[in-house]
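Now for today's protein.

===
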Amino acid sequence: MKKQGSILIEVIASVMILTLTTTFIISASIQNADVLKERILLEEVNRAVCNLTNEFKYNMSTKEIEELLSAEKIGFKYDRDFSKKLLNKDIKELEKGEDIEVSKIGEDSVGLKLKIQANIEIQKNEINVENEFTKSWWMDER
């Protein structure tokens, strides 16, 4: 009888260990998937901000930028196709929103200083990206 009791205790302990191990593996996998989604979103937002920066730097004149930013700042709505829309549309045609904001910081002898702030929240992931750049005088020459 003693052997059957100790076997029963060993089986219960083994099942508990397997349950704890399985629970740990599943929760680690879920957390890993969430981190991966956040990194992918961060990469997409960084790319969109970089593309928007290049659009302002090289495809718009200083005069066009000043007209666009006459109200201090302009905002755009972010979606997964934001960079593709930049290829096909003019900046003025992009959907307005508050996800990505472009504002004028100042102006000096070198050029126009601008700031892009992206605050994107999709599902549980929140991404904040900030980029300052200068639209130099030589960038207007085409």
Notes: The mean pLDDT is 90. The longest helix spans residues 2-58. Residues 2-140 form one domain. The chain has one domain: 2-140.
